[in-house]
Structure formats: C-alpha cells, structure tokens
UniProtKB/TrEMBL annotation:
The lineage of its organism: Bacteria, Bacillati, Actinomycetota, Actinomycetes, Micrococcales. Keywords: Cell membrane, Membrane, Transmembrane, Transmembrane helix. Belongs to the 4-toluene sulfonate uptake permease (TSUP) (TC 2.A.102) family. This is Probable membrane transporter protein. It is found in: Cell membrane; Membrane. GO terms for cellular component: plasma membrane. The chain crosses the membrane at residues 72-92, 98-116, 136-155, 204-225, 264-282. Coiled coil: none annotated. It comes from the Bacteria.
Length: 310
C-alpha cells in the first residue's frame, strides 16, 4: 500500500508538471520505476498505459481552457504515434542489462536538455504571426515519438521546447497541443509494447496508481499553465531527472561506482549545479517581470503625454 500511494503521488506530481510545462510526465514516472528496479521495457509500457488516461484527461482539460490548436495536434501527433510504435519495438528487443543504463542515459540527456533550456533561455515571442509547417511538425513528431517510447519519456521534452523555440505559437497553446497529441503517442506505444512483450512485466496496479494521481492533477495543471513560471519549473524538474538518472548510471555495470566516493562527489557537484540553476532561473524570471512592468509603465506614461497634448 505505501508503494501504491507513492506511485499515485508521483503520478499527481508528474501530471502537475506535465500539464503546466508540457513535458516530464513520462520522464519523471519512468525514472521512478527504474529506481525501484523495474525492467526498462516494462517501465515504459506501464507509464504509457497510464498515460492513455492521463493524456486524455489533460487534453480535455486544456481544450476546455482554450489551450489547444487542433491542426498542430494532428500534424505532430500522427507521426508521433508512428515513431512511438517503432520505439516500443526497439526497446522491447534490448536486454534488461543493456536496457536499464541505456534508458537512463536517454533520460539523463533529456534532463540535461530541460535544465539548460529553461535555465539559460527565455521564450521567443517575435514569430507568433508565422504558421507552423508540416515539414517541421512531421519529423519532429516522428523523432519525439520514437524517443518517448524507447526512453520512457521524451515527447514533451523534445516537442514542447521545439515549438516554443519556433516562436510561432503562444506558450499555453504549445503546452495544450503537445499534451493533447500525446494521447495518440501513448496509445501507439502501448500497442507496440503489447505486440512486442504482451503483458509480461507490466504492472496494471502500478499503472492504475499513476493514472489516478494524474487524473486528479490534470484539470489543476491545465489551469496552472496560465500562472506557473515555466522557466523555474523546468529548471527544477530537469535537475531531479539529471540527479536520479546519473545515480542509476554510476551504479550500473557500465560504471560500477555504487557506494564509492566517486558517486557521492559526482552527485554532490550535480546537486550544487541544480540549486544554482534554480536560483538563476528565479533571478531571470524576476528580471523579466520587472522589465515587463517597466515597459507597461512606460507605455502608459506615453499615452498620458499624448492625451495631454491632444
């Protein structure tokens, strides 16, 4: 029972982050399942099974709050589903010994990307008037879907920053559209794992616990997307993923540092970097807010001058 409660809380927290940031449900949940010793393919299959429900609930919630662009959902989601099915087949053919560190390496890369992307870079707003093209969305969906299924997460960490970086869609619609299209990816990945490994190793009880936590969080996250600073949240989540998967890697047969001094040193350094990244993000966010207030005040003052002159 304590384990199921922990999984439900993890599902709730992961969905809160995913629904408000547009990423990290799969990465966060898969990292947790790997940490408690789950087979990589089974971990990804369990998470994607839970995501069928959470992404459906999240998509409906985002749609009700007006956060979804349905053209983007279809143009990125269908190729994403194809990539996810192939990725599920790929991961299912890796041995457990090779799969665990390989999956942690993918998750670590995604965590580093999250940490760097949201700590150092802001969001572009100068290209909102330009349309998103199929020749950009289709390859993006294909790659993100493959990484998502084979790495236990990646649809959001790849898709959301790519769309945000394009500057052609407002952030809330990027997040809502990526979350909604993930339903197609989760469904295709689940079918892929079912074909490849059947129900072997897939814990339906764990999937249900993750699902229940995610269902509670989905409508809250869709509302929070208008209020939570993505920069700070991205740095925080990225750091957790980097630390957890680095720990898995250094303890694996690839490195073999379990319980040794090197492990503590590496994790300690990463923890310091993580705290510094969050502090940097908070400072940058406050600076952006102050600049925005100053710009608004300046515009108001100019309007008063014009009104007085008239």
């Amino acid at each position: 029972m304590p384990q199921l409660l922990l999984l439900a809380l993890a599902g709730l927290a992961a969905q809160l982050v995913d629904g408000s940031l547009g990423m990290a449900y799969g990465v966060t949940s898969s990292t947790l399942l790997l940490a408690i010793g789950t087979n990589p393919a089974a971990a990804s299959a369990t998470v994607h099974l839970a995501e069928i429900g959470t992404t459906l609930a999240s998509g409906v919630s985002h749609w009700r709050f007006g956060n979804v662009d349905w053209k983007v959902v279809l143009r990125v989601g269908v190729p994403g589903a194809i990539g996810a099915f192939v990725g599920a087949q790929f991961l299912s053919r890796l041995s457990t010994e090779a799969g665990a560190p390989a999956m942690s390496l993918i998750l670590l890369g995604l965590g580093v990307y999250l940490l760097v992307r949201f700590t150092l870079f802001g969001l572009r707003t100068d290209r909102r008037h330009l349309p998103l093209r199929k020749r950009f969305l289709a390859p993006l969906g294909l790659v993100a879907g493959f990484v998502d299924a084979s790495g236990g997460g990646g649809w959001g960490p790849i898709g959301t920053p790519a769309l945000l970086a394009s500057g052609r869609l407002e952030p809330r619609k990027v997040i809502g559209s990526i979350d909604t299209s993930e339903f197609l990816v989760a469904l295709a990945a689940s079918v892929g794992f079912l074909v490849a490994i059947g129900s072997q190793g897939v814990n339906l009880t764990w999937a249900l616990a993750l699902l229940l936590g995610g269902l509670v969080a989905a409508p809250i996250a869709a509302w929070l997307v208008r209020h939570v600073p993505p920069r700070i949240l991205g740095s925080a989540v990225g750091g957790v993923i980097v630390l957890t998967n680095t720990r898995t890697l250094v303890r694996s047969d690839w490195v073999g540092w379990k319980g040794e001094t090197q492990e503590g040193v590496v994790l300690g350094v990463l923890a310091v970097v993580w705290v510094a990244a969050i502090a940097w993000s908070v400072r940058a966010y406050r600076a952006d807010q102050a600049a925005a207030r100053a710009e608004t005040a300046g515009a108001g003052a100019d309007e008063k001058v014009v009104a007085t002159a008239v």
